[in-house]
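Why run this: before we spend reagent on co-expression, it is cheaper to look at a predicted model of the complex and decide which construct boundaries make sense. The entries below are exactly what would go into the expression plan.
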Amino acid sequence: MKAIEAAGGAGAPRTPRAAMRRRQVREGLIEAVVTLVALTGIAAVVLIFVFVAREAIPLFTDPEIAKEVDLGRMFLPRVTRAGRPPGFIWQPVGAIPKYSMIPLLLGTLKVTIVAMAVAAPAGVAAALFTSEFAPPRLKEVLKPTIELLAGIPSVVLGFFALMVMATWLQTAFGFSFRLNAVVAGLGLALTIVPVVFTVSEDALAAVPRSYREASLALGATRWETAFRVVLPAAAPGVLAAIVLGFGRAIGETMIVLMASGNAAITSWSFGESVRTLPATIAAEMGEVVVGGAHYAVLFFIGVELFVFTFVLNGLAAWSVRRLVRRMSGAAA
Amino acid sequence: MKRIRLSLGAAGLLAVAACLVAPAAASAAVTVKGSDTMVILSQRWAETYMKKNAGKKIQVTGGGSGTGIAALVNGTTDVANSSRAIKADESAKVRDRFNVLPVETAVARDGVALYVNEANPIAQLTVAQLRAIFLGDVTNWKEVGGADSPIVLYSRENSSGTYVFFKENVLGGEDFAASAQTLPGTAAVVNAVAKERYGIGYGGAAYAKGVKEVKIAGKDGQAWLPSAENVKSGKYPLSRPLFMYTRATPAGEAKQFIDWCLSPEGQAIVTQVGYFPIK
Amino acid sequence: MSVRSRKAVGGGFALLTGAAAALVVLMLAVILLDVARGGAGRLSWEFLTAAPSEGMTAGGIFPAIYGTAVMTLVMTVAVMPVGVMTAIYLHEYAPPTSRLAAAVRVAVTNLAGVPSIVFGLFGLGFFIQFVGRGLDRVFSEPGTLRFGQPALLWASLTLAILTLPVVIVATEEALRAVPRDHRDASLALGATRSQTLARVVLPGALPGILTGAILAVARGAGEVAPILFTGVAYFLPDLPTSPFSQFMHLGYHTYVLATQSPDVEATRPLLYATVLVLLLLTFALNLVAIAIRTRTRRRAAAGH
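The model came back. Tokens follow.
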């Protein structure tokens, strides 16, 4: 009714045009508000970086803090006991605080390696099975079940790793440390597998049916199709899944806090306890005095974590974009 | 749909505004933060005190002595529990921010016990041996008279007063061995040592359940267990007072609570929990 | 290779990948069973409604349940309007080549990847130190800290930012599920864009939006790292009464009981029961969300 009136134009009375203008103004306002609110997403990311970095800046600008810690002390070996060779020590509380990042970086890396070594193959294999080999009814049950694993809070997985898995693993492998990189890594794998699974499965499902049909029509078996046609086609997406899992593993806090032993050891042995970057922040932040050197260093670790995951996310996104470009050429 | 969201948003805003104007109910509660060694004691005190005085509120959190003192400096707690003495620079920070010096009140005595697994044959150690073990110089039990197996060290997080006490009084200020696993609470240390055949850990004497306490020999050469009389008389080398710190002399609700903790009723609870009364 | 041996290898691979899937499901089952076995004995109405006593070795976990509920409520009130409107912008208003929309999407993806502990640092550095202390400078007597302290409000807002991507993704999926024909028909009849949104699209997308809310709540109930230094406490005598009180939380309670409880053997049944409650809660929420999502997806597939 209104549309006909509006289209009426010159012959129609004045009021509808004024009403239409009022409506347009209102529409413009609503769109402006919605757009503004959408900017919160960008604002959030920017603010996070700014306010975490803000508390870490005194490391470089405050002379008092620079006396206690600087980049050299954080990354280069130092002599900590008279007569002993220089080493990497993280002991921020003491007469002479020591802030080497190396044991923390190493610890984070070890735990992540263990987690990815288990979660990547398991997640991708499970996704492959669900997407290519499972009958449709099994698929409908399998997907939500594995997604349910994603819903388990990490504190519960940490609890499980601490109370149950640590004892199993110690009786199985005879570790001298009950809580070590392997226990924490396996606990971590439990939370990474659903991430790798979901994203890989989406990537595999996005491969057009025509690829599979063509391959089968040419005489390939189901698994040959899966491995030689579908998987390579979905490879960028599967890669993105693994990269996302890696990023998640680096940043995960609770599982590692509870199950890794939290010892800042600099070594490549996986059977020893480790101290990771996120767990250090969680364990020590409650203790620090606002504005001190220890406080600034912990925020600096936060900046490091933010940058790592930012870079990894960029990589994953780029990989997915390549997948989309590849797929968009083919017929659905 | 939009209407529901708008009204929810408005309600939320109103609630926040109301709390900005209304006096904060939270300020009537006494906040107690800090030492994990003291947290069960503090909780028992709080529970009993609140039962006897309806309407009073005491809020207790752990986190370690360092956390408590940091909270005192940051202004986020009324009372800081600490199992170590406040440091000079921490006092200075309180003075710089609040123009008063923190006041120390000793409320109980504790002995830092050394726990080993019940299957470990070791029965006593000297302070010098402890130092060597926790510095990482001695790494095998056979070097101190035990079985031929590597020593697994359990320590506390650096926010713990017990950690600082041990570092200063046993290690002479030097660093713990890097291989010492750091656990967030005394109970976690006990739990770990109870499960670890070749483990050794330290913590408040009140927590020792399921593990064996080692006799410690100090300067006088005699080895003592952290029992009530050994700790009170000072014979046990690792005895220490437990403190409550406040900004300036305790006043108002906080003073009433601390006074009650020092009363015979409060000190009876100290013995119940497993520590030793201050007198 | 002969067809038979190729098929055999294929069968082998199917078995291998199937074993991987089975292993994952098995781990899930083991965790559930272990928690149920350890905690079911302690679960009772009294456990759910009483407060902890005797130094956390007896009593119940009601304050933790209440604290979790209130905090997720405040978080949901904060995150839903922002998340839904962002999704509306991305899906309904933004032109396909808009650089702003692309920037928002990149920001949201990055937000989803930020480690939860960094959110905790952000909550401390922004909400408590910046916003809170700023409010104190204006509204409180000098020297007192009423707003610049860990509190329910700051923890909820921190979690709201953490769950923003969840809501945005779920809402966008819901908007996509509404058939284009519905929008086109509405616009053809002369309705404005906002009218179409309010009366046609949003009601149709409601189940998906609800899914987003439910998933956000499930996340909020389980995340512990962001609230560690922004508002949670171990033992509070009272239930939180104002947005500036501290609160207890199921996830944090689990962490403390598992690592710092005064008597490990005595609190073990309580610990298991707490974990069971937390698990049941998050599972129930996730299952409902998944059910709604599956139904919506099926409806969308049929409608297009």
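The mean pLDDT of chain C is 86. Chain C touches chain B through 43 residues (CB under 8 Å). Bring this page to Monday's planning discussion.
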